Amino acid sequence: MDCGCVVQNVGTAYAVWDAVFNGTPLYQRVVTVTGPLVRKPANLLVRVGTPIIEVLKHCDTDVESAKKLIMGGPMMGLAQSELEAPVIKSTSGLLVYDKTTPGVRDYDCIGCGNCVNACPIHLVPSMLAKYVEHGEYEQAEAWNVLDCMECGSCSFVCPAQINLVHFMKLGKFHVMAARKAAANK
User: Fold this and answer.
1) Distance separating alpha carbons of residues 52 and 50, to the nearest angstrom
2) pLDDT tens digits, residue range 87-117?
3) Crossing angle of the two packed helices 164-183 and 125-133, in degrees rounded to 10
4) Nearest CA-CA partner of 73 in 89, 57, 87, 90
């Protein structure tokens, strides 16, 4: 969405300043490590390329009990399956969850409309998710799934704990794949 301004976090703003005024390349990031299994939550200055497992060990994390690891924030972060994956330039946080942490889809959509009200693009995430879940990608495209900016607001406000942003990403992937296949014919 073009609004004539750039919104960045403090770590990125500092990295830009450091690169412009000091010529320093981005080789480290401030990473927030937290979650129910992290015994010593912290904000750490971590070198890019450091394995996630080493960062978690530094914070005395109960890695054996971890059921979910999110790289990034709670709304737009991405699940990680490999603890040996490295910290990358865009890593701002590591969230470690156990099986007792809420967020797993337990309920069907209740039709409350919270996701619609939360969407800054004025999409209908609940309807788009249903189309994607049933493989109706043409319908998802017609309802503008490609306009989703994947902010995660819809998932965050969903009382049924449906990971709506996952369906948006999946729908966008399938629509783009179909477009690419059609262009290659």
Assistant:
1) 6
2) 999 898 999 988 655 555 558 899 999 999 9
3) 60
4) 90
Do residues 86 and 124 both lie within one domain? no
Positive or negative torsion for Cα 129, 140, 175, 137: positive
5: in domain? no
Per the structure, how many domains does the chain have? Answer: 2
Q: Which long-range contacts (CB under 8 A, 24 or more apart) does 162-167 make?
A: 162/105, 162/107, 162/109, 162/126, 162/129, 163/103, 163/105, 164/115, 164/125, 164/126, 164/128, 164/129, 165/75, 165/76, 167/125, 167/128, 167/129, 167/132, 167/133
Q: Is the domain of 42 the same as that of 89?
A: yes
pLDDT digits (tens, 9 = 90+) for 161-183: 888 988 999 999 999 999 999 99
Asked if residue 109 is part of any domain, the answer here is no
Tens digits of per-residue pLDDT, 13-69? 888 999 999 999 999 999 999 999 999 999 999 999 999 999 999 999 999 988 889
Task: Name residue 43's beta-bridge partners.
Answer: 32
4 inside domain: no
| 92, 118: one domain | no
Task: Classify strands 93-97 and 78-80 as parallel, antiparallel or unpaired.
Answer: unpaired
What domain range is 163 assigned to?
A: 114-183
